[in-house]
Specification:
- This protein is an alpha/beta fold.
- The protein is about 30% helix and about 15% strand.
- Strands 1-2-4-5-7-9-10-11 form an 8-stranded parallel barrel, surrounded by 4 helices. It has a two-stranded parallel ribbon with strand order 6-8.
- The longest helix is centred in the first third of the chain and has 31 residues, at about 1-30.
- The chain is globular, with a radius of gyration of 24 Å.
Length: about 425
């Protein structure tokens, strides 16, 4: 009994001493390091949102057949007066999150996102001259991801940078592709590709590509109830065939809407039989939130598991149909939450899974966000630039990280693809 009492007294004494010591340290730390914590490098990576949990939303997989042209789209915030056929696109009306915020998991406007921004100061960066940059970065290949350096000749990214013009035919407000007829577009795209070829230097070529918003999210559910409007086969084939003539590629982008990611992407699978056709999925317009009425408001998301399911279905389709060409699957992202459990993405498929860092804004926000989302351990990356919304617009050398912007802002890892919208 005496022994137990003695042990208990010793425990109480030790607990008291430890408590006093911890309290003292906390007081000292809170006074001396308040400023240091505010500039922590980890601050931009902290999520400023409450996680929204919901089971995957979707309807039955689509039945093959003619796609209806019903449904309404929305209007981009612009001073232009769009024609009546432009006022129904969801992408055109949803305000894209400005990237001039340090936290990648926050949007600027409560009107377009359920996520609320947490203001985080961006720590000042050391100034680096272009001469210093060139001397330390050496050649373009050394600035690429490890996967790019190891890419086999069958990879679309083998010693190649992709350059795409994005949009929806005949809807100029959705991107440069819709602003011009196909003949003018070919000339403009080839000219821009030459600029990137000059910037790349020897040893790296450029692949120009038409980047079609093939499955466009709509405000109305349409006759299928999937909130998607697909381009006609005639329109898609016009771009595929012209691309083949010009030596270009084609990316068919699908905005998910009210379907599951796999169900929405199946619409694009038949076009994979063409060697120059690749696919992209856009989580922004996935209807995944409780009581969500319109795609894109709030911003949608996909999980890594869903992306893996798309890869599996895509690969299965390729095997069944004897498609031997290696394909790109691009996933759009401008918020951290748009690809959940990102670390669980499966890179074992013979598909070049590419993460596209989107979002418009000034060079500071765009470059900082890209550098947060992408490092050399990633497989393949893309960087999106916006005509009229990125002010000033980065030059090809700046977009590739070959030159710094304003002496100290620099793309750390060279993108495999540059998208112009």
């Amino acid at each position: 009994m005496k022994k137990k009492c003695f042990v208990r007294i010793v425990q109480i004494c030790l607990s008291t001493v430890i408590l006093l010591f911890v309290t003292s340290c906390q007081a000292t730390f809170s006074t001396s390091s308040e400023e240091t914590r505010s500039w922590s490098k980890q601050a931009p990576l902290q999520a400023a949102v409450q996680t929204l949990k919901q089971d995957e939303t979707g309807i039955e997989e689509p039945v093959s057949g003619e796609l209806d042209a019903d449904s309404s789209i929305v209007n981009e915030p612009s001073s232009d007066n769009p024609s009546s056929d432009e006022v129904d696109s969801v992408e055109a009306n949803v305000v894209v999150a400005d990237t001039d915020v340090a936290d990648p998991g926050a949007a600027l406007s409560d009107e377009v996102s359920a996520y609320k921004p947490l203001p985080v100061p961006i720590a000042p960066l050391a100034r680096v001259s272009d001469a210093q940059l060139q001397s330390t970065r050496k050649n373009a290949l050394e600035r690429m991801t490890f996967a790019t350096r190891k890419a086999e000749p069958d990879s679309p990214y083998y010693h190649t940078t992709w350059l795409t013009y994005y949009g929806r035919p005949n809807i100029g407000v959705m991107g440069i592709l819709g602003e011009y007829d196909i003949n003018t577009l070919v000339r403009l795209l080839r000219t821009k590709a030459n600029e990137y070829d000059d910037a790349n230097g020897a040893g790296i070529s450029v692949m120009p590509a038409f980047h079609l918003v093939y499955g466009m999210a709509t405000r109305a559910p349409g006759v299928r109830g999937d909130y998607l409007n697909f381009l006609s086969d005639e329109t898609v084939m016009e771009y595929i065939e012209r691309a083949e003539e010009e030596g270009f590629a084609v990316i068919l982008d699908i905005q998910i809407g009210g379907l599951t990611p796999v169900a929405s992407m199946r619409y694009g699978f038949p076009y994979l039989k063409y060697p120059n056709v690749h696919l992209a999925v856009d989580p922004e317009f996935a209807l995944v939130h409780p009581d969500q009425a319109v795609p894109g408001n709030p911003i949608g998301y996909v999980t890594a598991e869903q992306v893996n399911q798309v890869q599996a279905a895509m690969f299965q389709h390729m095997i069944i149909n004897g498609i031997r060409d290696r394909k790109i699957l691009l996933v759009h992202q401008f918020l951290d939450e748009m690809i959940r459990d990102k670390e669980d993405l499966d890179h074992s498929y013979p598909i070049d899974l590419t993460i596209s860092v989107d979002g418009w804004g000034g060079p500071g926000g765009k470059i900082s966000k890209y550098n947060i989302f992408v490092d050399k351990s990633d497989e393949f990356s893309s960087f999106k630039l916006f005509y009229g919304w990125d002010v000033p617009l980065l030059t090809p050398s700046q977009a590739l990280g070959l030159e710094s912007y304003d002496d100290y802002l620099t793309i750390d890892v060279m993108p495999n693809m540059i998208i112009y919208q």
